[in-house]
Design a protein that fits this description.
The complex is a heterodimer of chains A (850) and B (449).
Chain A lengths: L1 H19 L12 H7 L1 H4 L20 H15 L13 H22 L7 E2 L2 H12 L29 H18 L9 E5 L10 E6 L2 E6 L4 E3 L2 E4 L8 E7 L4 E12 L3 H21 L6 H21 L9 E8 L2 E9 L8 E9 L3 E8 L22 E11 L8 H6 L10 H17 L7 H13 L5 H13 L2 H4 E2 L14 H12 L6 H8 L6 H13 L4 H12 L19 H20 L12 E4 L1 H7 L10 E4 L13 H6 L8 H12 L26 H9 L2 H15 L32 E3 L5 E3 H11 L1 H17 L8 H13 L4 H9 L2 H4 L2
Helix pairs in contact in A: 4-5, 7-13, 8-9, 11-12, 11-13, 12-13, 15-16, 17-28, 18-19, 22-24, 26-27, 26-28, 27-28
Chain B lengths: L10 H8 L36 E6 L6 H4 L24 E5 L12 H4 L20 H9 L8 E4 L5 E2 L2 E2 L17 H9 L7 H27 L3 H27 L24 H17 L5 E5 L14 H5 L5 H27 L1 E2 L2 E2 H4 E6 L17 E5 L10 E3 L9 H10 L19
Parallel strand pairs in B: 1-6, 1-9, 2-11, 3-6
Antiparallel strand pairs in B: 2-10, 4-5, 7-8, 9-10
Helix pairs in contact in B: 5-8, 6-7, 8-10
The chains are: A alpha+beta (850), B alpha/beta (449).
Chain lengths: 850, 449
């Protein structure tokens, strides 16, 4: 027992110390003077000030920009081995590393210290704008998606300092305000609606398309080159001639329409797959035999049969044939521009078809609706030539009729209209009084606080000024309301305060906004505003119960996608996807699923109040059928994400086992252990290893003298260079431990060197062992997880500081460190839960002051 | 399948014809004609009626080039065109090949489009992960833009702005905010050339007046708010106030254009339905976007255009190839060869565009003499698939009427070269902008004027 314990203690200490040098090692403890005296002053001293740089007298006041820039130059020269020059005595690697590390830490500390530790006036970002419009106006069409991307800082796009304003954005805010109000407010009678039904299989003209007349449109209906069975068009696979739908029509009015269709799926069992493949392979065998001369037939038959059985093995064993239900892709064309509206599983069986609905916004432009088969069977060497044959068993999509109905208004006028222009006694009596009511109510909600003197009057004046020019009250009221949506009190989370040295407490309404933008990425609801109004919100128990209520609300999905999505880098999934030739199993469905897995995983901890250390290693996964097939976990049916026990042999359970993370830390063709190591350090351990010293280019494809060089072998060449090794010796091992996951997140035991990356019998076995610079060792993903768990303080501090950054909308400074420590303490006293962290943040001094 | 369907060739027919049962990729010939764009029938004008004026178009291709087949031999006027640059052979006298240049602040990777026209140090501002500065086209547009209906145009194969470090636009305003680009030829054509309803003049003027009232109102509101804020918050609010003020000026300019009709341009022969995301349409889409650029110039609808032909780390080559994948060639000869095909495909499109300009007479010279073209990439994939910001492939063409000197290879040392901003400064000056140095420039580029 004792030796084991000692080893693990040593491991703990060494890993911690290596990772912490840049963060916690106190910069002032190091004395740089002897290094400078030994290696620098010959040229940069009193006698010779090369390049007018004298280092023996250079002060260590890193707050001075000029001094800092000279030291920055020094650290770059040391790291890139430009200094000392080759002909001069060279410092030992570890001494140079210590010196460089001291400089980097000191410079970083000085830079962070200069930043303001106060939350600065923050503009809503795109996600917040969309959600706020949804909650304020009641129209949900994501107007901000057309705005420029918000610049991130500290890894998040809700940082006040970075969220700038430009004339272009002002134009877009103005245009969006007009569009939003035009959508929300209506006049006149409810537009006439249409309801068209098409039966593609009722095509008696023999062609794959025919015309149908509806409301003055001569519509082209297309049933594709598909078989018809009973009432169904049966779509076997996707191809240019297999899509069905209708087009060449113009709708009488724009708005939201329902595309509705009756459909079912047919999913072959494994036996069906093997049987169908056998038939096709037999046909190929017979064709091959027919070409042989009679004398060779007997020998050839034996050979061909062996080959057949051999090829069949793939169909009998590969997981890709554990088919799920067929998928459908619904798209529309508007004015010649195609757009995918939805993509989902058709889970109804042939025995009980179901009706599916998709909503889409149409204009009066020339339009079309398309339904395409969207299940992808990975195209591999064994099946690519037979996949498109109708006799090949694969999930089949059965579509009966398709309808288009709309524009859809559950009520007239729509709810968005009645919410703004509600029934009031003044409505028909006194227009100006009614305008005052309407503007006042909308404005207070939009500004998230009671109005102050004069605010309402200015807007009313605008209304009166333009009223005579406008044909109706509705048109006139849009003007002041648009002004509200373009005003700084709406676009910014304004927190007026008397300037003072000490942080001041924010008021209850400002607290309500901070809370709701933190947990919902949206405006506060009525309950929060009522509590603010009654002065109860800042009470600790009220705050805590509000956190519980808000996290239980579906709107807290925004915290999952915006916080977890950016903390872990999920927005990068798909930016540089695995190449299809090398990773044929990677498709759109998988890509979407892997993002959702990680989101669902974080949501599970948030909603079920779990121990956050489980984020590192858990005994469950949150997956759907698509991922279950990919990961080889049996018994998961359907596209919904759910918690499932993780079988130990699956090697899954925890963030570092998730395909999303493996993909964003690969370059599309191969894994990148460096990127993986950096990801682990930055995201889970809160350490930034910094940038490489120079652009070193792609790692070589080959290693001299090695027949099958693995990525690991190829990286070793880099590390022979001491300039690289200084940092990479501690980065790369963390990534090497994940080498069993390929660039698409699939488990592998060997690194493939065959055709298109296929794994051959003699290909190199994955070496997932990791050795840190101090000699400590661990191996594989499980070894890495153990290491991370032993460093739980680093992980908790990383999670706490990331979430606090996101909550405050500003980057943290040195003065926030004590708070981060207290957040970690608070988690430890509360079963390490994510919720306890949220509560600790919203009750912290930083969150309640400005 | 019906034999009358417009499908030229069924898949099975192809398979039968081959006499073997093999899987074939979907050939272009098998796409139903109705869904696809056809080659352009567009013809340039013989003569331009526009007043000769300096114009500039900046064309960006992503993922670098096969630099081995790109770099010309020799330098000065005696240089030998490389296999790739051979595509522009007929315009040799009207263009210069610049090698060895780069933006010193650029960090390489796939962020080239973000800095190609700005030369910015994206990490320069403490407290921001990313910040950009004004691009040279916007510097130009600030001055010459007042003369045209559209101060500048932004074209790209991805609409909008894209994300930081993967920009879909080359243009950034004075605050470093990306200007969204348009990728639909149809929408672009409508914006530029389809007349507004004549009866709506009054309505348009009213709309502008209303916008000004609202801008006045929010300005007042912002000034009231300003008085209640702390100093840091006031600084942030000033960005807002500045933006409102600038928006107001723009409205004034727009009002001035209300009574000027749009030029009479027909869409004959233009493949306005070409889709940038459709591999088959790729060439047609590039062509039609360049045709629209040509039409914008010849009608003096704008004088400055930026055009990102394809996105970094994604997007297609002119034949629908996976361009990004090939840029990680690692020195592989097969991949380099394919890259060369892409590079030449792109230059073929450029060549066609240059020929249009060359063929159009304008005030006794060719329109090309009045139009400056900067073509290049913000990345160099080198000999081994590096993603380096050094030795960027760059071509400058046209504009000889304004003093650009061509017919040369201007070679520079990739490790000791003038900043690429010197080229941008040269173009800005020739466009009439009085600037001694754009961004980190040390002057104009020697040899180009």
């Amino acid at each position: 027992m004792i030796p084991t314990m000692r080893v693990s203690t040593v491991l703990y200490l060494t890993l911690t110390s290596v990772l912490l040098t840049s963060l916690n090692a106190c910069a002032s403890e190091y004395d740089h003077r002897s290094f400078v005296a030994t290696y620098c002053v010959q040229c940069h001293g009193a006698e010779l000030s090369e390049g007018e740089i004298r280092l023996d007298t250079l002060p260590t006041n890193f707050n001075d920009p000029r001094t800092a820039s000279i030291w920055a130059e020094v650290v770059n020269s040391i790291n890139s081995h430009a200094m000392p020059p080759e002909e001069e005595p060279q410092p030992p690697v570890d001494e140079a590393a210590k010196f460089a590390r001291w400089l980097e830490t000191s410079l970083a500390e000085a830079e962070i210290a200069k930043r303001s530790a106060r939350t600065v006036l923050r503009r809503m970002n795109r996600a917040e704008y969309n959600n706020t419009i949804r909650d304020l106006v009641g129209v949900d069409f994501k107007p901000a998606d057309a705005f420029p991307q918000d610049p991130p800082a500290g890894g998040f796009d809700n940082m006040g300092e970075a969220l700038t304003m430009s004339p272009l954005q002002m134009e877009l805010y103005y245009a969006a305000a007009r569009t939003i109000l035009d959508r929300a407010l209506v006049e006149g009678e409810k537009p006439a609606s249409i309801k068209w039904r098409f039966d593609p299989e009722e095509n008696s003209e023999g062609a794959d398309r025919y015309r149908v007349k509806h409301d003055g449109n001569n519509i082209l209906v297309n049933d594709g080159d598909n078989a018809t069975q009973d009432v169904f068009t049966v779509i076997h696979h996707d191809s240019w001639n297999k899509g069905i739908g209708f087009r060449d029509f113009s709708l009488p009015s724009e708005g939201e329409y329902i595309i509705r269709f009756r459909a079912a799926g047919r999913v072959p069992e494994r036996d069906d797959v093997v049987a169908s493949a056998r038939r096709i392979l037999e046909q190929r065998r017979d064709e091959a035999l027919a070409k042989k001369p009679e004398s060779l037939k007997h020998e050839s038959l034996k050979h061909e049969n062996e080959r057949l059985e051999n090829d069949l093995e793939h169909f009998a064993t590969d997981r890709i044939y554990d088919y799920g239900p067929p998928r459908i892709k619904v798209g529309i064309d508007l004015g010649g521009t195609p757009e995918v509206v939805a993509e989902f599983d058709i889970d109804a069986l042939e025995s009980s078809p179901s009706t599916y609905e998709v909503r889409a916004n149409f204009t009066t432009e020339k339009a079309g609706v398309r339904l395409n088969y969207a299940y992808s069977v990975p195209s591999v060497l064994e099946n690519f030539w037979m996949q498109g044959r109708e006799e090949f068993a694969r999930p089949e999509l059965l579509v009966d009729w398709i309808e288009l109905e709309g524009p859809i208004y559950p009520t007239w006028p729509p709810a968005s209209h009645s919410r703004i222009l509600w029934e009031s006694p003044h409505r028909n009596e006194n227009e100006t009084a009614y305008a005052r009511e309407v503007i006042g109510r909308f404005m207070a909600k939009a500004y998230r606080r009671p109005l102050v003197d004069g605010e309402l009057e200015a807007k009313l004046e605008l209304f009166l000024k333009l009223r005579a020019d406008k044909p109706s009250f509705v048109e006139a009221i849009k003007v002041p309301l648009a002004s509200v949506l373009a005003s700084p009190n709406f676009l910014y989370l304004a927190e007026p305060v008397t300037p003072s040295e000490a942080p001041l407490e924010i008021n209850a309404y400002e607290l309500a906004s901070r809370l709701s933008y933190f947990l919902w990425s949206s405006m506060p609801d009525n309950e929060l505003l009522h509590l603010a109004n009654r002065g109860e919100l800042s009470k600790a128990d009220v705050l805590e119960s509000q956190v519980t209520r808000m996290l239980d609300d579906a709107k807290s999905d925004a915290l999952v996608t915006n916080f977890a999505g950016q903390w872990l880098g999920l927005r990068d999934v798909g930016a540089n996807p695995p190449t299809s030739t090398l990773y044929p199993k990677y498709d759109r469905h998988l890509e979407v699923s892997m993002v959702k897995e990680t989101e669902a995983f974080f949501a599970e901890f948030l909603r079920q109040d779990l121990d956050s250390r489980g984020l590192i290693k858990s005994d469950f996964v949150t997956i759907n059928e698509r991922l279950a097939r990919y990961y080889g976990i049996p018994g998961v049916k359907g596209d919904a994400f759910r918690r499932v026990d993780a079988p130990p042999q699956s090697h899954r359970g925890g963030l570092v086992t998730q395909a999303s993370i493996h993909c964003i830390t690969s370059n599309g063709t191969r894994t990148s252990p460096v990127t993986r190591g950096v990801w682990v350090m930055k995201s889970l351990l809160g350490t930034d290893p910094g940038l490489p010293v120079a652009n070193v280019g792609e790692i070589p494809t080959q290693v001299p003298g090695l027949d099958k060089a693995t990525v690991r072998d190829r990286l070793e060449i880099h590390r022979e260079n001491p300039a690289c090794a200084r940092c990479h010796d501690k980065i790369d091992p963390l990534g090497f431990a994940l080498e069993n996951f390929n660039a698409a997140g699939e488990w592998r035991d060997r690194e493939g060197h065959g055709y298109n990356g296929r794994i051959g019998k003699n290909d190199p076995v994955i070496d997932a062992s990791a050795k840190m610079p101090d000699g400590s060792e661990f191996s594989g993903v499980e070894g890495l997880q153990t290491q991370l768990l032993q460093n739980e303080d680093l992980f908790l501090a990383s999670l706490a500081s990331r979430m606090m950054t996101y909550a405050l909308g500003r980057e943290l400074g040195f003065s926030d460190r004590a708070t981060v420590r207290s957040l970690v303490e608070s988690m430890k006293q509360n079963r390490y839960t994510v919720r306890s962290l949220v509560v600790a943040i919203v009750t912290s001094e930083q969150f309640n002051t400005k | 399948m019906n034999s009358n369907s417009p499908t030229p060739l069924s898949r099975r027919a192809v398979l039968r014809g081959c006499g073997a049962v093999i899987g074939l990729p979907l050939l272009e010939a098998m796409m139903p004609r109705t869904l696809l764009a056809a080659p352009s029938k567009f013809k340039p004008l013989a003569k331009s009626t526009a007043k000769p004026t300096p114009r500039a178009i900046f064309c960006y291709v992503p993922n670098g080039v096969n630099i081995l087949e790109w770099m010309p031999e020799g330098e000065g006027t005696d240089y030998v065109l490389s296999p790739t640059l051979e595509m522009l052979q007929e315009h040799r006298a009207d263009m210069s090949v610049l090698s060895g240049l780069g933006h010193p602040h650029s960090t390489g990777g796939h962020s080239g489009a973000d800095t190609w026209l700005t030369g910015a140090d994206l990490g320069a501002v403490p407290g921001k992960d990313y910040s950009n500065t004004i691009s040279v086209d916007q510097l130009i547009a600030e001055q010459v833009g007042v003369h045209t209906r559209f101060p500048s145009l932004q074209l790209s194969d991805g609409s909008g702005t894209g994300g930081a470090l993967h920009s879909h636009t080359l243009s950034f305003d004075r605050n470093g905010t990306p200007l969204p680009a348009e990728n639909s030829p149809k929408r672009m054509f409508e914006r530029l050339f389809v007349p507004e309803d004549a009866s709506s003049r009054e309505a348009t003027l009213k709309r502008y007046a209303e916008k000004r009232s609202i801008l006045d109102d929010v300005t007042n509101e912002a000034k009231t708010l300003e008085r209640t804020l702390g100093r840091n918050d006031q600084r942030k609010l000033n960005e807002y106030l500045d933006s409102v003020r600038e928006t107001e000026l723009r409205v004034q300019r727009q009002i001035a254009w209300v009574d000027v009709p749009k030029p009479d341009v027909r869409d004959d022969g233009l493949q306005l339905n070409s889709q940038p995301g459709n591999a088959h349409d790729r060439t047609m889409w590039l062509d039609v976007m360049l045709e629209i650029s040509y039409l914008s110039f010849v009608t003096d609808t704008t004088r400055v255009i930026t055009f990102e032909w394809s996105r970094e780390a994604g997007g297609y080559g002119p034949g629908g190839e996976n361009h990004h994948e090939l840029s990680h060639h690692g020195g592989d000869a097969g991949m380099l060869k394919k890259l060369g095909v892409i590079d030449r495909g792109f230059l073929e499109r450029l060549n066609r565009f240059m020929t249009f300009l060359k063929q159009t007479e304008e005030a006794g010279r060719s329109m090309l003499d009045h139009t400056m073209i900067v073509y290049g990439s913000g990345m160099n994939s080198g000999e081994r698939g590096d993603h380096s910001p050094k030795n960027l492939p760059t071509i400058v063409a046209g504009g000889s009427a304004w003093g650009l000197k061509h017919g040369k290879h201007l070679r520079h040392d990739p490790d000791n070269h003038p900043p690429l901003s010197n080229v941008l400064t040269t173009i800005a000056q020739k466009m009439g902008v009085e600037t001694a140095q754009f961004q980190d420039a040390t002057g104009t580029l020697t040899g180009l004027t």
